[in-house]
Amino acid sequence: MSAPVHAIPVDFERQRAVCAALRAFMPEHGVLFEREDVTPYECDGLSAYRQVPMVVVLPENEEQVCAILETCYALRVPVTARGTGTGLSGGALPLGNGVLLSMAKLMKIVALDPLARTARVQPGVRNLSISEAAAPHGLYYAPDPSSQIACSIGGNVAENSGGVHCLKYGLTVHNVLKLRVATIEGEIIEVGGGGLDAAGYDLLALMTGSEGLLGVVTEITVKLLPRPECAQVVLAAFDDVATAGQAVANVIAAGIIPAGMEMMDQPAILAVEPFVNAGYPTDAAGILLCESDGTREEVADEISRIERIMEDSGAHLVRVSRDESERLRFWAGRKAAFPAVGRLSPDYYCMDGTIPRKRLAEVLRGITEMEKKYELRCANVFHAGDGNLHPLILYDANDRRQLQNAEDFGAEILKLCIDVGGTITGEHGVGVEKIDSMCVQFNSAELETFHALKHAFDEHALLNPGKAVPTLHRCAEFGRMHVHSGAEKFPELPRF
Amino acid sequence: MSDPVTQFADAIRSAADGKRPLNIRGGGSKTFYGNPTIGETLDVTTYRGIIEYEPTELVITARAGTPLADIEAAMREQGQMLGFEPPHFGGNATLGGCIAAGLSGPRRPYAGSARDFVLGLRLLDGRGSDLHFGGQVMKNVAGYDVSRLITGSLGTLGVILEVSLKALPLPPSELTLCREQTQCEALALMNEWAGKPLPITATCHVDGRMYVRLAGATPAVHSALAKLGGETLADGATFWRELRDQRHAFFAGESPLWRVSLPSIAPELQLSGAQLIEWGGALRWLRSDSDAMSIRKAARNGDGHATRFRGGDPRSGAFHPLPSPMLKLHKRVKQAMDPAGIFNPGRLYTDF
Q1: What is the ipTM of this complex?
Q2: Domains recognised in chain A with CATH numbers
């Protein structure tokens, strides 16, 4: 939100030295340093944080990536890797004294094997283009973050991205088989394997979601799944969100794992309906979209059961998509939720907490209280199947007080998510945005474990420093600002 | 008498101070797996019991010493199961051992592995610090994924105290079809069918026969059976349970048992000895007296790895050797979690 990184004046001597070293093996157009050339890289999808990088480098192959890292390691220059810059937590925010390593030119689908159901791709390949390439074989890549038309698979690995089908098909970590990773020393390691497992520690899991702090991914082998024969969606409307929450539990209790299960509250419905005419009832306190996919027999069986459960759970309206175009229309509203909310207000702040589903009503009540406290409105969309809540706080960034209130509102929501047994981020990552909230979720011994693991991969802390894991010192400072949450967490640290 | 966690933490601190190794032990059903280790036994079976199980949240949390059988019984009562179908290898198998070994059963390629189902865990590291990673929710990307790193690390990184796992519903209907098929034909069919939307949840080829488990909504299972063809096996459930726990006749006898993990489309392994194929072709069990070098070379050439699972020459090491940058990284990860090097030294690799 408010940029916490102070603009560092460019150290021109250092910049010249770094550029010269990189140009020893990089073509001239692959190393950028002029202000107007590097400014487009000053932020990612979290545009409230901006910092112009010292140098931008655009490798075109793995050898160049390794050589760049080796050079940065030798010169002790910090490196931030970037995919297509759609991340929502500032994970690709550059450093003023660092190199921004853009992976966007590595965008080849190297191999696609329909029989093995795998695709070997470079990190700059867009998420959706993998599914497009696989479509002629009746296959697709399952994780579908909402930014899938633009986001890169390398960024998905760095953030362990999700999407609306996670409950049934998993996150990125469940759909990646192997990675080629360049270490900060410029060495290539392979994690994962050609089969379904690999010898030694599961570094594939550790690397996935590590936000560019442990290595730079240069090639990804993903798993492809058979495209389901068909899909249908049930739209159910409820008079209050607690009842809708109970309906979700009832579906799960009936032994159904829906392909997608989304909830929207009334403010979100009211934002969306005039925008896309999805057919949502605007008088409902909340609606559920529950999708079934699979073979025709499976879908027919599951949809009729879901329909009955929704009715028995107290839905005042239940509709089943009659055909593919209606199914897509029902989804169009949910998929347009963010831009629709964006029309209501100059700015919105998207949160990403995950909670145990049974605490939903309580959390939504808490958010309603906070709306009064911070004098800001909030619309909620919810990946109801897996408990991932996206409150969208509406504010005006030009109003300093509103900006501050939105930030405090967001932090209080995250604290509430932790208090009910959840987490501060389900799929967007910590980045710079939620780094202080990490001090609330983890104690100092846990944070020290993260730092020790980081040290194992990157002893000089050159890979994306300052992201994802706060220093204990930062947490101590944060604790002083937020006495309730932090004071007892870091008693062993000196205060000054 | 202090509580078990305090006792474990005290034992760890004292062992770390004196650099004395600890041999972490659950039910002891998988002591054959991995390399022999040394050290004083740290028995975690005293720390047992299900802590929380909410079927509608699809999450079960239990202490490491809880018998796996207890967890599965509690889940079955609620119409749920552990989706990775963990092998037991004996009645004493515990949850802690199951996650430390990280092994998965026949359902693995179709539902996911042990680590895929781990949502979070609590452990004691080599300093005796009590740490929580992950949680009890389906999506959580705060901090590195330490819980999944711990899964399959054979107790070399910490003492697992509690684990939260994702639950799956039991399929309403299940049947096993069986066809006469050569290994080559079976491999082709397993891969071809895996690319189609079919409700397959397990596959196996042994002794010239191919077995396929279909599970899901009853009409879907019957329609798939009609599509694929073959005779149905009278007691399919027993077949898969015996396969999972290696009580199938293939696993009897003394000749060394190798576990070869390969891409599912890898051709038949050209090695002497009987083979059993699982996981849609991605797992090949081999009974062979061939030397470790040639088995590992064949696995490596096929872009896979080979584990000496039971028996054979202990000098060859249980697990596939790591390339040197990976070995270096493994040692550093070990150092990060267990600086004094006291947990199960040598169990995974003799170097750490």
Answers
A1: 0.97
A2: 12-102 (3.30.43.10), 109-226 (3.30.465.10), 230-337 (3.30.70.2190), 345-419 (3.30.70.2740), 435-486 (no CATH)
